[in-house]
């Protein structure tokens, strides 16, 4: 079934690529890409098979993400948020649920969300806030119990897919007790307002706008069914974000090599030694980064959270980010001025590729953590000033 | 007087910088920057003092170009074309004119053009054509003698400042004899049509659009007064283009370091070791590139066209281009995601900086020529396939 | 059984490391390392199980080579030659033998050589000649039939392990017909003279001296039993050389990271941010190179000689060579002056690591071939001037 | 006169180069190089003309050092120590001497030392100690007044030229008051013992051995004539060490480019595109580093100790060190395996070149300081953990 997903991703990528220039230019959301993803059943990729999904492993997901990103990195980044939500929800086993005191009806609610995803719904993440970043302890969005559910009020930033998702994973603090942070799956609709703030160097089509919430949700939209579980779910997600960013940027880097090759062949420049040297070194670097991402993903499946797994996740993030930026810059130089015209794939990929190292954990942070680990230290304890 | 020019450039740069985001966004020409340049008398920078100009050396020009580029690289690039035209015209000595058979009235016409520049006129260059690039031997724009002057017909591309200059240096071939290539200084006005084709990754404000010509010019607008001198004038210009591109990109690179420092201080991130390391290495690289450009320019003044001068010109072009791109990429990474928002100086500088290596002679071509010279060969004879 | 080999390699590596400084200093052959290899049964690693060997795949071999190289890269390089000989001999299937017209007694002779290896013999390669390099078509060593066998006469260079091996794979041309090139497995003993010419920057303990031959060997020492098969066997070996060089240099690179970590911890310098950054980036680069080597080796097993397999082999060679040199240079800088003292592991590793890119195919050649392939061309047909 | 010195350096360099391989191999001191330096009058380079010297500026010295290093970097490094001593002694003006309370007889003694240098004496520096490094506050070498002078006792390390100099600049602490650190110019002879500890990756011919002192010196060998002036003199020297190291490594880098060009031409490999690209980029990098060193030196003459001067000194150190290592590694790769044979200039230069970044202030430290300065901070106050 997941082989099917990979084939679907490969089939869709050229369609995404054909639309990418327009969405990059306008900063518009790739609505048709998401329709394609829905029709291909990819929203159920991380949903357990028992609930109608494909039950993909993280490694399978990473491979799919890379293929999608070869079409449009921005589409793959937004899809990544959905995969993170469904993947983290699906990762809550019955044992874990019992240990956390999750009531049965909460598991049932969780299953309804996953089933909906398998049937075509997709979810975005509304976690970050201005000033707080993604640190749960500093959120200002709050919630309180009301008749028939919960009322949430606050503002989120960097919400990829804002205004287009069927639901939003929202973290908020209890108005009654500031130390309690909970997560809700807020359905799209009234009470949510998108403020179009996203206007970025690259990955422009993610529509990572601000999202203002003043909304009441049914009781069963509190994830886990009991308040205060946000940190637990958050801890299930980090490898998702870090390692899956990496998968996306490998796709972007490979797309850059392919676009450069096409451009150079069309202009009969493939015989130039400097061109060959640039493409050859770029090809090797991308191939290496792809293997590292695959290895990290494999280990996430086998031993999530292990110290050695984390090292591979950081290696993947570091290498994917730096490789994408370096490769795109080099092959653009090989391709020449004619490839810098807006609308040319390399022009967009050069901008998209620069963003990978900047997602948390940044390349410099990953290098620091890896250095601590290589020196036998514990990155959790010994890291230099972290950036996130 | 040229010290005055340098001070003027430093005074204007912040004003250019304040307008740069808008022109970058819209791809609009920095009209007010050029008004400022006119009012500061900088259009006369390369005009001999006897004709009312500042009589600057090439080294002095390079220093001015770098300062202007710290404000807006695109403005500096367009100014560079004007400086190239006036510099090359001014470089035709009486001895050279006599050797070429330039009649006295042509020298008088040349002096009028330079005097006009000293009084506030500026000239653009309309040399390249689709397909032909800048190779004079393959131009399709043609001219023929008509009553009262010359008629020119054809289309040019990459004409920086198209639609805004007071005159255009145009190369064309004689309709009567295809082997004769001449240059004209075509005044702005009827007969020139700008087709807005320029929409680039970086240096967006240069308005390097297509220019269509179907125009009659007075007899004295044939440069040199006799047909067929285009190659001679062209040979006076190359160091202009190559070395002065380099001066511009040093300014862009320095602007990136400065913008990153400002951004990082504003966000209290100056204490991060990785940030310091990136800025320190960037600072050193830019300082080195600036010295190389100054040395190349100094040698262009002392011994233009000498083999050793040419090596310095290529070194300057190579290092300025690669340094600008590398430095902008690194300091943007130091600055983080918040600096990738459109309108942020670093977002623009990252794109502008990538263009330097791509101007002819590209970095790869310069490296090849320098390698041939380091190996004791003659780049004119032994170079690998050239890109231009 | 091959898991046993990997464990043996890991057990031996520290013993090799303890002896490495002495052999590096003197350029002496690591005789005790080879005794250890014999005792661990590793000379039979590539010998089919039916003949008493471990029947390792190429992927298994590559893993072993990397582990050995973590102890001493030079030892691993010499072992690599033996593995190449036994691996290529073992790869001649009965079908291939039949197609080539290999008589049964030649297969029996081959089996004796492999059985001897499984029992503790090891073989070196004497292929290159001054002037000819490794090009079979330009060899000057010749052979002719004599009573009871063949007489060989000539001089070989770069013969790793010269004077220590139990046999030498020697290529020679027929005195009767210069176009016929055959290979012999010449036993150690009279008729072979070692001229100690090897005195190199790095990998000093390989004893890759000159070997002079004036020797008669029994008839069954002609490999394949018929003359003229040298090219066929040679074609079975290239991935051996290229890909297994790569495995060795990954081990060298990892050893450098480990030695730097030990040195820095001993000097309490692990807290320095620049040190961490260098080790972190080095760690990631080595991990990536190791995965690429493993992937290349896996594909060599699955589809030897395929175009895609070859690309992976070149990627492995390119990345292992450049990574080893870059990593060793960077971590030596992290470790500081105290690590540049002769006898310090990093001092040796810095020199050893530089050699990887220089083995054929060099990094620049691999980059060219990879570039041709990325551009859709055929490296066999379209490559720029090759270096070998 | 100093132009004469530069010419002498250029004349001597090939002679040094011809002897370099032998001294590198044996770690022997280049006695004949120093005889050449004496005969050329170069020991008086930094001695004021009034005392018979050449009265060179620091910029002139830097140019000489680079030329000497093109012959043998190790010779240039040892010469650098002598130039530092004579340069610092010569830099003590009468005003400064008066402000420090230096008695007239001490100035007379100083003049005698400088006059001796002009006549052919040369001085080494014995400052560092195991454990203390070059930190004056942690020295364990002590002195006490005795009949007819001072008695010094202790051990020094990294004393370049140990056993060959005519005198040694020695820092020691007063036995009576540990807080008082003084400097002495100890004449060669009895009481000094050289322990041959120097056996390094590169710069092997500096003979930077340990020096044990148990010696009595005349009263006038206390520099400055009053105790406790060591820190003052030390503060006059840092730019000497940092900036003049840089000058040496530029020479080493240029020598590497030249040696590679000679090697490649001899082997008819100059036509290979990858070779040209490597040499071209190397040539540009070395040219840039040389200009930065010259600029730093010029500013040291004009405004020693200024914040902006210091930035140039750090830029020079950073770029010379990194450029030498990078360039030597790249051109060795261009030259190929045949250049890795011991005795080949590139083999030695590759090792010598790696040492530049490791001399204090290391490249990483310079980058940190430059980053602090670029961010508007004060490196003296804000630097991250320093390495020295």
From TrEMBL, chains A, B, C, D:
Pathway: Sulfur metabolism; dibenzothiophene degradation. InterPro entries: Acyl-CoA_DH_C (IPR013107), Acyl-CoA_Oxase/DH_mid-dom (IPR006091), Acyl-CoA_Oxase/DH_mid-dom_sf (IPR046373), AcylCo_DH-like_C (IPR036250), AcylCoA_DH/ox_N (IPR013786), AcylCoA_DH/ox_N_sf (IPR037069), AcylCoA_DH/oxidase_NM_dom_sf (IPR009100). GO terms for molecular function: acyl-CoA dehydrogenase activity; flavin adenine dinucleotide binding; monooxygenase activity. Residues 245-363 form the Acyl-CoA dehydrogenase C-terminal domain. Residues 7-87 form the Acyl-CoA dehydrogenase/oxidase N-terminal domain. Residues 124-214 form the Acyl-CoA oxidase/dehydrogenase middle domain. Keywords: Flavoprotein, FMN, Monooxygenase, Nucleotide-binding, Oxidoreductase. It comes from the Bacteria. One of its GO terms (cellular component) is cytoplasm. It holds the Pfam family Acyl-CoA_dh_M. It catalyses: dibenzothiophene 5-oxide + FMNH2 + O2 = dibenzothiophene 5,5-dioxide + FMN + H2O + H(+); dibenzothiophene + FMNH2 + O2 = dibenzothiophene 5-oxide + FMN + H2O + H(+); dibenzothiophene + 2 FMNH2 + 2 O2 = dibenzothiophene 5,5-dioxide + 2 FMN + 2 H2O + 2 H(+). Its EC number is 1.14.14.21. Its main location: cytoplasm. The keyword Nucleotide-binding applies. It is found in: Cytoplasm. Belongs to the DszC flavin monooxygenase family. This is Dibenzothiophene monooxygenase. It comes from Micromonospora peucetia.
